[in-house]
From TrEMBL:
Keywords: Hydrolase, Lipid degradation, Lipid metabolism, Membrane, Transmembrane, Transmembrane helix. SUPFAM superfamilies: alpha/beta-Hydrolases. GO terms for molecular function: hydrolase activity. The chain crosses the membrane at residues 6-22, 29-47, 53-70, 82-107. It comes from the Bacteria. This is Dienelactone hydrolase. The keyword Electron transport does not apply. Pfam families: PAF-AH_p_II. It comes from Paenibacillus pabuli.
Length: 486
């Protein structure tokens, strides 16, 4: 919850209890409580913005007024409450107070941990079209492949300006979460009030001549901002991060002119959508997306019309990380594009045209996996498998290929980390949206994020900045994760 929400909420709940059970309620104190409550409400509304889970709390502002009106009534002065009525009233007050406190906690305006590095964060978005590629998923002939790209970059710590929202069109995203991921739209009603630590179109810090560049590719049904928890920490440590929205494979794409491109399943659902024949082919499109974006980044570094990035991108030290399908794309880029020097795959099955050879990818690589993901069908019920549209024997056969592709992950001295008590989406922002999601999945989002961030920064600091590596000293079993090295 936000600071002013807490202050307003606690004050009004205390006032409610006092007004109901307190014996002596001087009119001046009741008037004072009413005035303070109204002021707190106005300040909260102006600074933080009002939202629906706070409605029960907002109604508490009226309670002192009701009491003042009741005190003017003679009948109210002489009415005596019996013990049963007092008990019932007290219980109702407790229930209302619980609802008042509970709703904002269950449907919070979530926030991201404060960046730990020496830099502030700036951000700017681009709408880039690859004129060399036809867009195959539109009905209009001649459409070219168009991508939204967001770049985050280091700024001076004291930089001021307009704080960037989490997503540009929260209502569109809330609808997409419901339509694509089948998650209740109500969970995402507060996205409009979620803020980041990034300042829109701020100046790039001149503390360093150049900053290493790291590409980010989201998961299937994901979006370019889905790992803000991770991106902000990286940028604060002195990296330029380039997030790619893979149009029609993302949750949704929102373009500057208001156009919206929804997720396109190509008629495939459930187990059919996971088939290697389909996913390997789709991944080729994603690899081409990343290569195109990298071409554009090189042009931006050479000739940025706004002058922000001119000569300030360290193109000799380019890394990449991705979640799920974006993680698979990262592996393909490591093997396919010499410009990418090091990469991380967060819980992504190794879809793609190329297989990791027995000797490994030949570049620094860190694989991160959720323990429930690598467990495969052993943690899946028959009902869950049936809901995917397949049978247990078919699912087990599918996972044989998954594990076969994983076999050479650590070859050549690379790393594989398995996080305990995590799910596939623990490697994204999603579980921050509501504790309801965390409880239903049995995960601790911020604990997982802390581990992911620590290892991410350590990995890229070593391979892109030449700093000492801590990973080698952490190989083995730990309380929250295990780490293997080839």
């Amino acid at each position: 919850m936000r600071t002013l929400e807490w202050i307003y909420l606690i004050f009004n709940v205390v006032m409610l209890v006092w007004l109901i059970v307190g014996r002596n309620k001087p009119r001046k104190m009741v008037w004072g409580g009413l005035i303070i409550s109204v002021v707190l409400l106005l300040v909260h509304g102006v600074i933080e913005g009002m939202r629906w889970p706070m409605i029960p709390a907002y109604l508490l502002t009226l309670v002192p007024l009701i009491v003042l009106i009741a005190k003017r009534s003679k009948s109210a002065d002489v009415r005596k409450f019996g013990r049963v009525r007092i008990i019932v009233t007290s219980l109702l007050v407790l229930v209302y107070a619980a609802v008042t406190m509970g709703l904002p906690l269950l449907f919070p305006v979530f926030s991201f941990d404060k960046p730990t590095g020496p830099y502030g964060i700036g951000t700017v978005s681009y709408d880039w079209t690859d004129g060399s590629r036809e867009e195959l998923l539109t009905s209009a002939a001649g459409d070219k492949r168009e991508l939204m790209v967001q770049i985050w970059y280091p700024t001076d710590k004291d930089t001021k300006g307009t704080t960037a929202p989490y997503v540009n069109d929260p209502k569109v995203y809330a609808t997409a979460f419901n339509d694509v991921l089948k998650l209740p739209k109500l969970l995402f009603s507060n996205l409009i009030q979620v803020k980041t630590h990034a300042i829109q179109e701020a100046s790039l810090s001149d503390a360093e001549a150049k900053y290493p560049v790291i590409l980010f590719s989201h998961g299937l049904h994901g979006y370019e901002n889905q790992n803000t928890f991770q991106v902000e920490q990286l940028v604060s440590q002195g990296y330029i991060v380039v997030g790619i929205n893979h149009t029609y494979s993302s949750l949704v794409s929102v373009f500057p002119d208001g156009r919206v491109s929804q997720f396109e399943s190509e008629g495939k659902e459930g187990f059919d959508q996971l088939q290697f024949s389909y996913m390997d082919k789709l991944n080729q499109t994603w690899v081409k997306d990343v290569q195109f974006v990298l071409d554009q980044v090189e042009k931006l570094s050479a000739n940025d019309a706004n002058g922000r990035f001119n000569g300030h991108m360290d193109l000799d030290n380019i890394g990449m990380f991705g979640h799920s399908f974006g993680g698979a794309t990262t592996v393909q880029m490591l093997m396919d594009d010499p410009r990418v020097k090091a990469g991380m795959n967060m819980d992504g099955v190794l879809f793609g045209e190329k297989r990791i050879p027995a000797e490994g990818v030949g570049k620094p690589f860190l694989m991160m996996s959720a323990d429930t993901t690598v467990a495969g069908t052993s943690v899946m019920s028959d009902d869950e498998i049936a809901a995917m549209g397949t049978t247990r024997p078919e699912a087990e056969k599918y996972y044989e290929e998954v594990y076969a592709r994983y076999e050479p992950v650590t070859a050549g001295g690379n790393y594989w980390m398995e996080l305990s008590n995590t799910k596939h989406l623990s490697f994204s922002d999603l579980y921050l949206v509501s504790p309801i999601l965390e409880w239903s999945q049995g995960v601790d989002a911020r604990k997982a994020h802390q581990i992911v961030n620590d290892k991410t920064i350590d990995f890229f600091n070593h391979y892109l900045k030449g700093q000492p590596l801590q990973l080698d000293s952490e190989v083995g079993e730990h309380t929250s994760y295990s780490l293997k090295k080839g």
